[in-house]
Amino acid sequence: MLDGVVPFPPEFRDRYRQKGYWVDRSLSAVFDDTFRQFAGRIALVASPERISYRELGQRAERLALHLWQLGIRPLDRVVVQLPNVPEFVYLYFALQKIGAIPVMALPPHRYWEIRHFVELAGAVAYAFPDRLGEFHFVELAQRIQKECPALRSLLMVGENVPPGFPSLRKLLEEDSGLTPDVFAQIKIDPTDPAVFQLSGGTTGVPKLIPRTHNDYVYNSKMAAGVVEVRSEDVLLIALPIAHNLPLACPGLQGYLLRGGRCVLSTSTNPKDVFPLIEQERITHLAVVPALLIKWLNDPLIGKHDLSSVRVIQSGGQRLQPEVRRRAQELIPSVRVQENFGMAEGLLMFVRLDDPEEVRMETVGRPVSPDDEVKLLDEEGREVPNGEVGELACRGPYTLRGYYRAPEHNARAFTPDGFYLTGDLMRRHPSGNYVVEGRKKDLINRGGEKISAEEIENLILTHPAVQNVACVPMPDPVLGERTCAFIIPKPGATITLPEVVRYLLDAGIAKFKLPERVELASEFPLSPFGKVSKKKLVEMISAKLAAEQQTRGTPA
Q1: At 146, which CATH number?
Q2: Which domain range does residue 468 map to?
Q3: C-alpha–C-alpha distance, residues 330 and 101, integer Å
Q4: What's the domain count of the chain?
Q5: Does pLDDT of 555 surpass 50?
Q6: For residue 285, what is the enclosing H or E element?
Q7: Can you spell out the DSSP letters for 12-38?
Q8: Nearest C-alpha neighbor of 190 from the set 343, 398, 17
Q9: Which of 64, 262, 521, 531 is the most exposed place for a label (fewest CB within 10 A)?
Q10: CA–CA separation, 231 vs 200, rounded Å?
Q11: Strand 389-394 to strand 77-80: parallel, antiparallel, or no bridges (unpaired)?
């Protein structure tokens, strides 16, 4: 076991094996079988390339031999920061062949995050693009390599690779001189990490989440089942592929395990995405709500044939019923399937055959029979059925501790191994679960706790509102008041008095009313595609301070 990884207790390992959840095979061994089974089928599309399962397996193997020559060995950590290009997929499976562990950095990360990941993981290599937009990565990579002596190898993807940098594309074209016999000496323990995902916390630098070979394969298999992935299905991957949802829930892994096809897009712009859906006859989309809202409100949506889409899988944040209804109006063939999940493990999915009212109101239920879920009050006691409590969970694919974070783990896990998520939920009469916000997503107005999500749900039903995010703004008397950041629908506008009148007409308690409205054209997003409420709080706090200074009152 890699030092710094918290193992599953022996009695749980035994149970998960006996029930067939863990098959005790490495992720590489499982996918080697998959590449052989579907050898002649198309696995990846990345315009203009169409890559078969056989070619995917061969290219991953060729790259793995080159990585072996570079000195990368089992359990070595490699920070991977690549966009949605085929080289990401080749590198991911090449690292699995060796038993090395990719650390799933995201394209928006920069020096502060990447250096942290390299140091915390003890990474020996860093894979990055030559550029993304206007940002060039070479200087960043060289700076981190100088500061982190363990970082031996820099691997680049792109058209402009400077001399001295190994180019992944060049390695894929060249013969290493080694034979696959090299892999016979590699022993991979399926209880070791196959990948390090990143925590999605709203404060601080993300922590590393060890996902083992056993649990990550099971994760994808179960997700593929509840999404009802068929061998002829086609997934569009437009979200950053390194993230847990598009990679494994079911994502790339789940669709490949079923013989499906994955179409990679480096753009989320409707002018790029809609033609791709039409051309490739996409059947499944994986989105976050902010992205879906953007697509649904773009006039181009009515100019393309999107009738092939069967399922829109939404995760990351609560999707409002109005958005679901709008999606189904614009694409009548579609079902919007909400899921609640986390890179730490637990996945909840609304089932496609759930009654409509259940699909509209809930985020689903766990995918595994052995997912254990509790809703706890402030004292750690389970709340009565139907009441709101903090979600705590453990199961065959949920971590038992963050990597090298013993102090945080002592706070984030109960003594019997339940992960305390910080999410507030209640159990729906159907057995599904309803998200009621987060413990940290509360506005404390003079001691009255206001759920930001509750207010957002109501404001979003206003005909002039496209999207909304409610955050606390500082107040010298009450501590916090509510500020509503609103993106109006095209051509519309909205004021604070209109919002207040609308909410009062809905019968909401007055203390929950927003006391300021800020109009926006877009929201700042976290690297995971979620609305960054942390940045919105910083924005309104700075604006209030500037206004106070202008008025000559103390900040």
Answers
A1: 3.40.50.980
A2: 442-551
A3: 42
A4: 2
A5: no
A6: strand 284-287
A7: HHHHHHHTTS-----HHHHHHHHHHHT
A8: 17
A9: 521
A10: 31
A11: unpaired
Q: Cα–Cα distances in Å, from 203 out to 183, 206, 390, 407?
A: 41, 8, 19, 16
- What is the Cα–Cα distance from 94 to 99, expressed in whole angstroms? 9
- On whether the CB atoms of residues 434 and 426 are closer than 8 A, the answer is yes
- Beta strands 131-132 and 135-136: pairing type? antiparallel
474, β-bridge pairs: 480
pLDDT in tens, 19-76: 999 999 999 999 999 999 999 999 999 989 999 999 999 999 999 999 999 999 999 9
CA–CA separation, 481 vs 537, rounded Å? 11
The DSSP bridge pattern shows strands 101-104 and 49-52 to be unpaired
Q: What is the DSSP letter of 315?
A: -
**In which residue are the tokens 């637990």 written?**
346
Domain final position from 193, 213, 233:
213
Residues 6+ away with beta carbon under 8 Å from 11: none
Read off the CATH number of the domain in which 508 is found. 3.30.300.30
Q: Which residue has the tokens 């609640």?
A: 340
- For the chain, counts of helices (H) and of strands (E): 18, 26
CB 141 within 8 A of CB 121: no
Q: Answer whether residue 331 is part of any domain.
A: no
Coil, helix or strand at residue 171: helix
Which alpha helices (DSSP H) does 185-334 contain, by range?
A: 213-226, 244-248, 251-257, 270-280, 289-296, 321-330
Residue 38 tokens read as: 């579907």
Quick one: CA torsion of 180, 184, 189, 190, rounded to 10 degrees?
50
Beta bridge partners of 394: 372
Backbone angles phi, psi at 251, to 5 degrees: 55, -160
Last residue of a domain, one of 213, 244, 274: 213
Query: What confidence score (pLDDT) does residue 205 get?
Result: 67
For the segment 268-293, what is each residue's pLDDT rounded down to a tens digit?
Answer: 999 999 999 999 999 999 998 889 99
User: Is residue 329, in this structure, part of any structural domain at all?
Assistant: no
Contact 229, 284 (CB under 8 A): yes
Give me 461's structure tokens. 């039903």
Block residue for tokens 């390599």:
145
Q: Under a CB-based contact definition with an 8 Å cutoff, are residues 96 and 28 in contact?
A: yes
Question: Is 336 contained in some domain?
Answer: no
Q: How big is the chain, counted in residues? A: 555
Which value, to the nearest 10 degrees, does the dihedral of the CA atoms of residues 287, 292, 294, 296 take? 150
Contact assessment for residue 499 and residue 488, using Cβ atoms and an 8 Å cutoff: no
* 208-212/442-445 β-pairing: unpaired
Nearest to 114 by CA among 523, 527, 529: 527
- pTM of the predicted model, to two decimals? 0.86
